[in-house]
Specification:
Layout lengths: L1 E3 L8 H8 L1 E6 L6 H14 L4 E6 L2 E2 L2 H10 L5 E5 L5 E6 L4 H5 L8 H11 L5 E2 L6 E2 L3
Parallel strand pairs: 2-3, 5-7
Antiparallel strand pairs: 1-2, 3-6, 4-8, 5-6
Length: 140
């Protein structure tokens, strides 16, 4: 798990306060344990005062504009997600832990996004689907 620092806002108290309530984490979203890691990250960030958490797929380079769009969308929905060009999950955003929902997803399959949307529908969890991300694989 790799945390991405929030923007430098030391000279701007209002902006700094707003940024502290937002958190960005970078987690591999294509392996079997992704749901547990996402749940852990969201719980930890909320316990530390974050109100909106965006998880980006560590295997992909997710554009900053999409991350900003996700933070904006989290004002209207408790769950947002975006697919990569190949249909993988590029980004998840949450305002609260969704343990049961995340546990139901087969993260290491090619249809994790489809399963996430289906499980959200079955559990009556509103989700906002963002436009597909123009991503690239991260180089090692």
């Amino acid at each position: 798990m790799h945390a991405i620092d929030n923007d430098d806002t030391a000279d701007q108290p209002r902006v700094r306060e707003r940024a502290q309530r937002r958190a960005i984490e970078n987690v591999p979203l294509s392996d079997r344990a992704a749901g547990a890691r996402v749940t852990e990250v969201v719980r930890h960030r909320i316990a530390n005062g974050s109100q909106r958490i965006v998880i980006t797929n560590a295997d992909l380079a997710v554009p900053r504009e999409l991350v900003d769009h996700a933070f904006d969308a989290l004002r209207y929905s408790g769950l947002v997600c975006a697919a990569s060009a190949d249909g993988a999950i590029a980004l998840l955003g949450m305002t609260q832990p969704l343990d049961e929902l995340l546990a139901a997803i087969p993260w290491d399959t090619g249809n994790a996004l489809e399963q996430l949307l289906s499980a959200a529908r079955e559990q009556h969890v509103p989700v906002l689907l963002l436009p597909p991300a123009r991503t690239a694989m991260r180089s090692e």
